[in-house]
Amino acid sequence: MNPIKGHLAPRSALHDFLAPDSIAVVGASLDPTKRGYKAMVGLVKDGYPGTIYPINPKADQILGIKAYASLADLPGPADLALICTPAPSVPELLRQCGANGVKGAVILASGFGETGTEGARLEQELLAAARDAGVRIVGPNTSGIFNLHQKVNLLALDNVKPGDIGIVSQSGNMLLSLALEAQHNGQVGFSTYVGPGNQTDIGFEDYLRYLGEDVHTRVATLYVEGFRDGRAFLDVARETTALKPVVVYKSGATEQGQKAASSHTGALAGSYAMTVDLLRQAGVSVVQYSDEILPVAEGLGLLQQARGKRVAVLADGGGQATIASDRLAEAGLELAELSDTTRSRLGEILFPQASLANPVDVAGSTDTKPSLLADCMAILAEDEGVDSVFLVGMFGGYSIRFAEELLGDEMRGAESMIELARKTDKPLVIYSLYTPIKPPALRRLHEAGLPVYYSIEHAVRVLAALGERGHYLSTCADHDVPSALTPAPEMQAVFARARDEGRDLLEPEAKTLLRTHGVDVPIERLARGAEDLAAVASEFGERPVAMKVVSKDILHKSDAGGVRLNLQGEVALRAAHAAIMASCQTYDPAAEIEGVLVSPMARKGVEVIIGVSRDPIFGPVLMFGLGGIFVEVLEDVAFRAIPLSRHDARSMVEQIKARKILGGVRGEAAVDQEALVDLLLKVSSLVEAYPDLKELDLNPVIAYDDGYAVVDARVIVTENPVIEEADS
Amino acid sequence: MNPIKGHLAPRSALHDFLAPDSIAVVGASLDPTKRGYKAMVGLVKDGYPGTIYPINPKADQILGIKAYASLADLPGPADLALICTPAPSVPELLRQCGANGVKGAVILASGFGETGTEGARLEQELLAAARDAGVRIVGPNTSGIFNLHQKVNLLALDNVKPGDIGIVSQSGNMLLSLALEAQHNGQVGFSTYVGPGNQTDIGFEDYLRYLGEDVHTRVATLYVEGFRDGRAFLDVARETTALKPVVVYKSGATEQGQKAASSHTGALAGSYAMTVDLLRQAGVSVVQYSDEILPVAEGLGLLQQARGKRVAVLADGGGQATIASDRLAEAGLELAELSDTTRSRLGEILFPQASLANPVDVAGSTDTKPSLLADCMAILAEDEGVDSVFLVGMFGGYSIRFAEELLGDEMRGAESMIELARKTDKPLVIYSLYTPIKPPALRRLHEAGLPVYYSIEHAVRVLAALGERGHYLSTCADHDVPSALTPAPEMQAVFARARDEGRDLLEPEAKTLLRTHGVDVPIERLARGAEDLAAVASEFGERPVAMKVVSKDILHKSDAGGVRLNLQGEVALRAAHAAIMASCQTYDPAAEIEGVLVSPMARKGVEVIIGVSRDPIFGPVLMFGLGGIFVEVLEDVAFRAIPLSRHDARSMVEQIKARKILGGVRGEAAVDQEALVDLLLKVSSLVEAYPDLKELDLNPVIAYDDGYAVVDARVIVTENPVIEEADS
User: Fold this and answer.
1) With an 8 Å Cβ cutoff, are A322 and B455 in contact?
2) Structure pTM?
3) What is the pLDDT of residues B238-296, one digit of tens each?
4) Cα dihedral sign for B132, B135, B136, B141?
5) Contact flag B317-A401 (C-beta cutoff 8 Å)
6) Residues 34..73 of B with a Cβ closer than 8 Å to A: which?
7) ipTM for the complex?
8) Hey, what domains does chain B have and what are their CATH numbers?
């Protein structure tokens, strides 16, 4: 089973008040419907061992504990203040907290930024007061916190037990739902819960660092509606996932992303798909459905990660073996190929009619001896070609379905499975159809830390998460980012000029930037006027060329009639040039035209698109996909946060659904994927080296079996900060 | 709520023995581990009111019931025989059953066709014996049957209660799993269960007809590994789904389909995707995940179907409202636009901070009065723009979470919801995070026939199934199939000739067939030799044309160098012709070449593909998709069983994921979808009219904004039956 392996050195200031020695309840109440009463009950009932200071100007005591009129009256400092009073009272209370030496305040009140302008002003006031007072804030607009190992149950939840799942949830109902599921499950417990609320002071990244450091937390589980600083979260996640699993459910899977972008790449960024890709890049286990959060967190907490994708399925019924196989394939897992030794060892203990291929179907062999299942699992776990073992069927129910006398053997089977789990470094994942009625053998497994799943679907999600985590950890070594690129002074000058002129890079400038740093851009010539065409024509000879207008004022060159293809010879070039000039002048009479760019027609290949945008939440992000309808209609793209490691670049090429096309279809050769990987890494370094590069589109890049060609390139330059004029 | 509306006139012979007045247990046993003992226990314990005849040559009585040495000794006939003895004994026992007047026999033994050749022989012997004896067979290799309303519990399952879900499952474990889930659920019960086993005599279609007729069955639920006669199943399903919901889980979602096919269409047919499309065409509710079978069956049984896709979500927490919205969008459902009246009525009873857009978030309004939720549901259900109401959150748990005193109001809320469900014709679907601990209000809802779901995900699957069923029933009127097409004698002659010559139709023949029946195929000319080219050239003038070789021996025309494009004028035609002839003769010196087909180059448009194959299980099937990589790489296609209704044809065009492209992307005009629908219907009628047409590929068809052009057509002809020579 999975030990807690290590922890970040304690650095988070959150420990000071999320594991407090003393708590002030501001707004402690005698009214049982109030949070200020419930919190007191939660602390008292759970036996909080620290000091409790109820604050209530009208009461002498609450639940038998001496009450104080205000924070100023306390005999000593409180580590934590729970503030249950309405929004307008909070800033002043924070000042009092500061005076008292309170380290952190949990602010339940709503009525801040989430309600509009006036609330936002109050929230700023609150933040300023907290900063002045040196008090950190959880919330406002939070459902509260608990720390069950410290008996700090400020939510007064019944029937939650201490355990090793830490939770940060922006939805109070979600926490409640997880708590009730845990109660029903019977074995799962929680360490710390925090509702981050408006994240005015402390954001998800801070809470994650805390959970990463917390010795009682084995799995950090987060329900996220929105990150405040996505980039910071990714950084903390990368550190944390190296030590313990981080499970994230991100809501808003179908929301349309923010569309701040002026380029095509931007329109697809900011989406749920992007967020998921970036989280996975940082090793986070992303859960897609809300009812899988707890099963996956439990599995990642208790079970070994898998070394690979090869699953051995052991079943006592063909139907569920088939269902398991279907789900495994859908989840990207494989049925392990069993060795001859494994098959013959299984053959020795099972009936002749048993199926020894994977899925292994015992075909009745275990009906009178269910403990044989444990023996089979041990044999499967010893197979070098097996990464995880998946038991599917009615274990735990043999003594119910067949004969009560089997209970002893079934319990022995459970003990053997527990023993095996201790010895092997492979995960044992167990689904039993008897889970709903919790028979003794399943209870025993669960108590010993071997979870048993209610549905094949959930069990497979756990197997997938264990496999993904194992894959992530085993490829960590490849996660190093190539060393940065030195910006070229002449290109920095180009950016500076563009900024000064309030324009983006012209296509030739963008391509020069790429060429400067070793990107393959086909040769091309800028003809500033008709007088340059003769030289250009003689250079390209009879090769067919393309001609495109160059103008900072014309973004949509085709629409402006600014593109002509398949031209051969000087006569054709001259005709095309005249046509382009006429057409573009009609399109935009004011357009400043630099000239036309002439380049050889690109060979046929596979069109791909590479884009960069700077996401307001996650910072610079790279996008990769096949060109045309794959991006525009199917949205079949992959995202990674910049900077990329080689592993990241490779994984994004492998991720897109249409990757088969890169492998060669309809008789085409496979494209040179390593060249694309190199290109992705180059683009990533480029973005790091030139902070003025705001967005970049290479669309299309034509990929060949021997490299690629960047056919069109667009670079958008960060605007100069607008200098606001003072009101006059 | 959803009444059982009517039934097929009883026609199925299965009633005679699935609701038997007397049962013989052949192999009744005193050994508690034997099925022959368990079955006796099941009958006795459940109080089976009919006559039980234990058959055991060595016992006088079993469980106090007089035993007989053989079927021949029975004092009267048995409607049903449960045969618990090994495979080799079965054929003789069936003869005895016949003599006794047994109507149906349930054969548990395995060791038949599923084990190999010898078993298959025994299975044939068994079938022959049953036919001779006039006895119908359930199985062999079945887990058995039960009919709980008749107290026939031959599986001796504990804790299953009579109810209205009928089950046919090829997996015994799946039945067990559903039974345990039902036990845990507490409200769901079953009518009849049958394990069809090898379907040697009775197949899924027969069992479905029985469940359709059975007055105790409100929902027919099937777990299917393989259909024996898929076409017959579709026919029965179409009749049954008009009366009651039919839920199917088909295993083998990721199996590679059978590849009997010689054409491209065939390779994609036989797949899971095809099976799902055909089942849905017949109105079946297909369930994708095994853990959704019971929730969906329960929901379809108890709730109204929805009139449309517009869901009103009512939530008491923003987080779960967002999750619900995400899942609804993924399932193809919409958030209803609430009317002004609805909003203002909600506004009158909720706090000012409540969100009155959909999802409606009560924002604390119900914390002290949970019954307000029922009032909100009533308001939402009255909105004309709402098709179903989805309650999401903590209903049932208010009295646990907030204050015990709320229990009375919460129970009143439950009563109001029950009342509303009785009055409204819209489904009310309820998710509560308190479901795991079954508080009183939720128990009350459930008892009154309003299911409460454990996860938002499952609840949304139920909403989707209700919406799909409502959509199916409301479009039933469009399901009429256009009247058949009369075959043309000259085309029948073409088929006859091709069959005689052991070849498929030549491209010009296939196109003539299409043209004969009104399909738009561009004009083209066959040049049998170089001497015809002058006339062809003068006909097409300066229009660019394509030239393709015509030969029954050359299937892959491009590979053979048999295609030339973009030819203009006689000189070009002659050169191309010479090149094609030379190239094809090199490619296959023995090829008989009929000539070349010359046709104008097709205008640019959207390539689609239409294919027909004859599936061994489901009969003639039509496939539609976009051409090229959409079919080959993305497998984005839709299938329907032939004959198609206009509704079917339209729905397949709407089904494909890349349908956006038909609507016009990248500045292209939308294609004429009605013309494509007409074409699909024509092809469907064509296949019906010409039984010799085995497969058909129209690939590509170019779709335009004003019609379409069939650019290539291939028709494969049914082989003459091979006449086997007698062994000599």
Assistant:
1) no
2) 0.91
3) 999 999 999 999 987 764 223 322 333 334 445 888 999 999 999 999 999 999 999 99
4) negative
5) no
6) none
7) 0.89
8) 15-298 (3.40.50.720), 304-474 (3.40.50.261), 489-600 (3.30.1490.20), 606-717 (3.30.470.20)
